[in-house]
Amino acid sequence: MNRVKITETVLRDAHQSLIATRMRTEDMLPIIEKLDDIGYHSLESWGGATFDACIRFLNEDPWDRLRKIKDKAKKTPLQMLLRGQNLLGYKHYADDVVEYFVQKAIANGMDIIRIFDALNDPRNIETAIKACIKEGGHAQACISYTTSPFHSLEQFAKDSKTLEDMGAHSICIKDMAGLLKPFDAYDLIKAIKETVKIPIVLHTHYTSGVGSMTYLKAIEAGVDVVDTAISPLALGTSQPATEPLVASLQGTERDSGLDLVKLSEIADYFWPFREKWIESGLLDTKMLGVDANALIYQVPGGMLSNLVSQLKQANALDKYEEVLKEVPRVREDFGFPPLVTPSSQIVGTQAVFNVLMGERYKMVPKESKGIVKGEYGRTPAPISEELTKKILGDEEAITCRPADLIEPELEKTREKIKDLMIQEEDVLTYALLPQVAEKFFQLRKEGKLDQPVEEPKAAKPAAPAAAAATEDDDDEVAAVISGAIAAIESETGGQYAIQSIRQVSPWVLAGRINR
């Protein structure tokens, strides 16, 4: 068998999972050349939440980060994570934006684009796959892994074949919650390998504690590539550690061929950062442990912490177990979506509301309504007519590809920011994150990007006295929730959901909303 290849995640998913994507470009650049010399299959260095975090929290241009990394990584392919028709934002974008984003990503140095959809709806990733192929990039299409009565080896193999037929160069099994257990991984890889001819990649998180064992069984089954993180930023909600896996395979037919001494030098560079982040509180040591609840409730680690935060803000932490039990019920109601951005935030927040209200679906945020209506695509299993009627009323559900309903928006966006643009990529940054981008562009224009960045403030909660108003204010409460909850990456998504609960909590505490 061939050597197993390794993708290093330290520049993207590792710090996204552990420190909310706060590693700065200046902290990455000194080690890039050594990373480039290791012999990795690829360096995951962009995409996911990094794009948002750069301009929202770090006052950095994500395009500039990509160019600087590419300038130092001469040999190893760069890799990014793309949310299909959502790109790196939090809604579906028009095809012209998707195509232009992929074109610019590759032009600025990206080599491998890992493309996924939260619902595993292939219609939502087809445009990005075709654009990547057209621009000469490597299109890696994803299957978001989950378990349910609907999902099976046959279904995952069928989905993989669909992606291969679309032109994907490789397929990634994206196990975002660490749910894939070792022997299940063996069977899954075998089933897909028997169905498609292109390489298979496995991505997991160590949240549930089984990640390294899962990789070993997947390697036995013939997986081509696995994702790992260098040890200082590994384990917990991050990926399994690079060095132990490399050591475990030495002398076997799947030996990675990577040098442990060189890897040790990479680790030595990152250990001081880890210690600094722990001292500052940026890295919560709780994120480094094992949470077996992920295997019971299928809830990703970041989602678990968000649920705790939401319930604390509502003074309802005693409802935690009840909410955890409600999550799989909501997920079933919503057609068994995999719990990954944005579906994890939508399902989790709806579960919180169902418990706090004392009545299921008494309050339905617009994102939950969007899932039922089909705004995010086709759910893995159909949603019942009863729930659809309860949530949509007389509204018609969407049955076509959601992006088919979106008019071209690239030129309109360019016109909006023509006075703030200094590079063509700015039009894409604004298209994805308009409010945050406009603030960033203004600071850049004023030469103030080096000023400290403030964390987003929670909206001021209504005074408890307001809770004694009339029942008509329930509409105001609903509006606050719908407007505040964004379907975004777990860390930022939690921030907005917390704001929602904080605003609503006076009504909860005053008995306006049943607990």
List keywords for this structure.
disordered C terminus; 515 residues; alpha/beta; 22 helices; globular; 8-stranded parallel β-barrel
DSSP summary, beta strand count: 8
Uncertain spans: 454-515
What portion of residues belong to β-strands?
5-15%
Largest sheet, strands/sense/barrel: 8 strands, parallel, barrel
SS content category: alpha/beta
State the share of residues found in helices, binned by percent: 40-55%
Rg computed from alpha carbons, rounded to a whole number of angstroms? 22 Å
Tell me the quaternary state: single chain
Mean pLDDT: 87
Report strand order across the widest sheet.
1-2-3-4-5-6-7-8
Number of discrete helical segments: 22
The gross shape turns out to be: globular
Series of secondary-structure elements, N-terminal to C-terminal: EHHEHHEHEHEHEHEHEHHHHHHHHHHHHH
End-to-end Cα distance, whole Å, is 58 Å
Describe this structure in words.
- The protein contains 22 helices and eight strands.
- An eight-stranded parallel barrel has the order 1-2-3-4-5-6-7-8, surrounded by five helices.
- It is an alpha/beta fold and 515 residues long.
- The protein starts with a strand and ends in a 6-residue tail after the last helix.
- The radius of gyration is 22 Å and the shape is globular.
Helix and strand topology:
Blueprint: E1 5-8, H1 13-19, H2 25-36, E2 42-47, H3 50-56, H4 62-72, E3 78-82, H5 95-107, E4 112-115, H6 126-134, E5 138-144, H7 153-166, E6 170-175, H8 182-193, E7 200-204, H9 211-220, E8 225-228, H10 242-249, H11 260-280, H12 293-297, H13 301-313, H14 320-333, H15 343-357, H16 366-373, H17 385-392, H18 410-416, H19 426-432, H20 434-445, H21 474-484, H22 490-509
Parallel strand pairs: 1-2, 1-8, 2-3, 3-4, 4-5, 5-6, 6-7, 7-8
Helix pairs in contact: 2-4, 5-6, 7-8, 8-9, 13-15, 13-22, 14-15, 15-22, 19-20, 21-22
